């Protein structure tokens, strides 16, 4: 098990309880009584519960069975036909919300573009017609490699509208990471942009896309959005400009009725083995799950302007920047750029300018803001905010309190939402008007979620006992499989502890039923809320000609939560150039995987059978004294030597 880091230790002693104000509770969508009643119903009469929720959405054909559970495979709303884009757009236009703002987008350079629901429907329809003209059919995979611009949302919804399966690859991923994902998904079409803006610079995405295409023989077409007017290389028989092919289409398009279990998207995420997994989500269940959780957790009202700061390259961007809020007919804000462009006040200026009411962001961002002091947010009028959310990694109580006090003016409830790429939607949280918050603790299970804390052998643990977080029954928005590798799905999620979903997190539950997440228990790191497999980084390192062996561990970091520490052995005593090696990892995976510290070693701590004891490496990386039984090591002397080696 991963050693608990310092801030997790702090949480063990955290006792503050902060109740929502009477004012917030009085206007909240969900009260304590309502949560208790519906939560009970969701477990005792799940068919009735989920039918009631699903019936609020549009179905072209009704389902005949709510759940078909053939462990570990679930089908939800069996036989039903629906369409995500129809529910996110047409449904609202049909009920008179055509003129309501759907998307308010702000570019890093300050440009603002606004789309009403009617306008967004028109754009998505055009894009859907264009995809069809390009030969994309229902079931085909389409890879998206885009900055956070309106076309990214339009492209996702256009895929959903025709039943094409999108696979969004974060724009910060490298050429080879992009190529691997295109190849694994067997995408024939890549949608990208000439460039995206990041910290004032145009980052040339097309160049990366061209290089990835050279490594992806199955790729046939590239659809390119003009964002930055940067010069690009052009391959006439392959590349098409978005404006040329989308702009000329009709703005009418009939959404395809799709089977509830039709795949909606694949999203790659890191696991404990080397290769990222294509997490596969389907249409009906994911739609119902994101619809319900967005409305309940964020207390959505008609006049809210809701801002989730996640990029669409991550699951948070899928479920809570795009699908969940649009399914609810909300007005969403999207911001293209970095939080510190031109300075650390950018988020607060955006909130003041657009009168944002709900903000959902990550602990790593909150800690960065906190580090720059209270004066910067104090310069902006944040009085429009009424609710704050946190997601992606454990939030330390100090950052939680700062967020509530400085950003939320001690007035806004803070929800700390635990979930994963695989769960599709929020699983553990407090509901803002219903439950008091405990800083550092995610809270209670969402409707339909039946969690437990277990030992490795599957025994359930009681209150305040730390163990493994599992979910005891399927839920609508859960992943259906790992794309192209069902065996890995069975093993990773339902095989670790037979019969229950294994989340990969350590957690404990207190006597009020609140869950506190203690971090990953597998070889997965969480760096600034981004998930990275240690094996993935190790394979990148050993692909470098000067490296013969590598071991990667996480080290607690005050801003990033965790950072990457790499122990490397050199090939035949070659010199390691740390900058070169960091550049190499950036090229292999992306800048997010760059090691913060590199320790060039003569030997790694291995057992006699050759297994690297990462536990000791974690202690060395954190500068802690070695604790634990070192007698199984082939050569315990290695540890002192490593501890004495300065990092580069
Ligand atoms: C892992 C999932 C959920 C969307 C963003 C990340 C960690 C996530 C919390 C939280 C403590 C959290 C877990 C989880 N995590 N939210 N509120 N408190 N830890 O999605 O990339 O799939 O990562 O992020 O370790 O397993 P992801």
Automatic annotation (TrEMBL):
Acetylated. Deacetylation by the SIR2-homolog deacetylase activates the enzyme. Its cofactor is Mg(2+). Residues 92-475 form the AMP-dependent synthetase/ligase domain. ATP binds at residues 392-394, 416-421, 505, 520, 531. Its EC number is 6.2.1.1. It is an enzyme of class 6 (ligase). Residues 35-88 form the Acetyl-coenzyme A synthetase N-terminal domain. InterPro entries: Ac_CoA_lig, ACAS_N, AMP-bd_C, AMP-bd_C_sf, AMP-binding_CS, AMP-dep_synth/lig_dom, ANL_N_sf. It catalyses: acetate + ATP + CoA = acetyl-CoA + AMP + diphosphate. Keywords: Acetylation, ATP-binding, Ligase, Magnesium, Metal-binding, Nucleotide-binding. CoA binds at residues 198-201, 316, 340, 528. Belongs to the ATP-dependent AMP-binding enzyme family. Catalyzes the conversion of acetate into acetyl-CoA (AcCoA), an essential intermediate at the junction of anabolic and catabolic pathways. AcsA undergoes a two-step reaction. In the first half reaction, AcsA combines acetate with ATP to form acetyl-adenylate (AcAMP) intermediate. In the second half reaction, it can then transfer the acetyl group from AcAMP to the sulfhydryl group of CoA, forming the product AcCoA. NCBIfam families: Ac_CoA_lig_AcsA, PRK00174.1. This is Acetyl-coenzyme A synthetase.
